[in-house]
């Protein structure tokens, strides 16, 4: 029996579009009826998540996303996915207003890396300033005694430019920015790198990335399909 999936999207809109397309592509289905029923709220006007974290002015963002979670519950969804890494800083707040399980994209991504790389000691995190400074991935890594490593200052500026100046502005992204940030993390001794921003997941659609880059959106897609009762295909 398939379960209806709720999605709080629009952060950003293109990332949500890629998430939806990946769920369809990776669900084992030979008919329409074998796909998952989904309710997608593409809340593009959602206040900026990074700004909410860095300034501490979070009430406007929380009011918006908590309302979305409650609305999805009223529509009968049985799991909620949020294809936005930065928003997961507020996961406990969001979960507190709904009985519907919210998939922990961050925690599941770290678990996935640990299972795939049992000897991993240090994971590079390529995400927004909000995700980095909030320590969202650091806390998830702590559970496995893994060090979470951020790009150094100059490299992190390139990551933010890739996210905001390129992908969120509708461009495919500058490969040189990604490569320099990735090399910075590898120079710091990272065994693997989590692509911890859905805009970087969009970038990955245009350019190949190294095999030791684990896309958090891919992990969320996998969990979304499995928890909805469908079969996942690689």
Automatic annotation (TrEMBL):
Keywords annotated in UniProt = Isomerase
Q: Which species is this UniProt entry from?
A: Bariatricus massiliensis
Query: Among its keywords, does the record have Electron transport?
Result: no
Uppermost EC category = isomerase
In terms of domain of life, where is this protein from? Answer: Bacteria
Is Isomerase tagged as a keyword?
A: yes
Q: Which Pfam families match?
A: Asp_Glu_race
Q: Which GO terms describe its molecular function?
A: isomerase activity
List its EC numbers: 5.1.1.-
> Sorted alphabetically, which InterPro entries does this protein's record hold?
Asp/Glu/hydantoin_racemase (IPR015942), Asp/Glu_race (IPR001920), Asp/Glu_racemase_AS_1 (IPR018187), Asp_race (IPR004380)
Q: Which family does it belong to?
A: Belongs to the aspartate/glutamate racemases family.
Protein's UniProt name: Amino acid racemase
